[in-house]
Records
---
Amino acid sequence: MKKLLGFLLCCAAIIGMAGCEIFNPIGPIISIGLSWLDGEASKYYHCDQNVINLAVHNALSELQFPIREEWVDGDTIHIKADGADRFHIKIEHIKDQITNLRIRVNIMGDKPYAELVFRNVDRQPGVKDFYSVQELKQVLHER
């Protein structure tokens, strides 16, 4: 019994010190649609690509990250911006009223910086999040 109690206390201490990072599925649940893959953050929005493009421009301006380059490749708008670090932002039109915003900071990705940009984009007028994971899945899989 003492060994089991010691093991549970040890596990609780490890989890307490590590935070939520060891529970990878928690991130997308807390921030609906936000996910991380190979250093790139991705989030789906329930609005048009032009709304997200304007919101990104406004957010970068507020954060004083100057845009260095911008181009369109098919359904994706690419933006490169500089601050203390380099940002590569992709705004992809998925389907009507669904846009995917992807942000990579530097080569390996910088989670706090990317989340800072997402928070500023989320506060812009006209930007709509999905209310639940189920709503996001349903809209993505509709034909």
---
Amino acid sequence: MVVKNVENITRKPMLIAYRKEYLGDAVMVSSQSQETLIKIEFSIEMTPLGDKVVRIQFLQDIHYPLVPILRNLKDHIGRLERSGSLP
């Protein structure tokens, strides 16, 4: 399963400057070219050393191994953040 896009991204209000939280819908494509929409909540946190840590929480059950999906989503969200595409 591969990440096609993350849609409907909304930023949750936070009082902490070094942490940003978002809600969105991850569009995943399976090997049979079937699209699946998965609701997610994710955060991007700046560590004291300047690294950015992405944490993802699934808001619904998924029936696929988590490690490959998490790796793909973290990479995709990192690219969105670096390109300035997040709200």
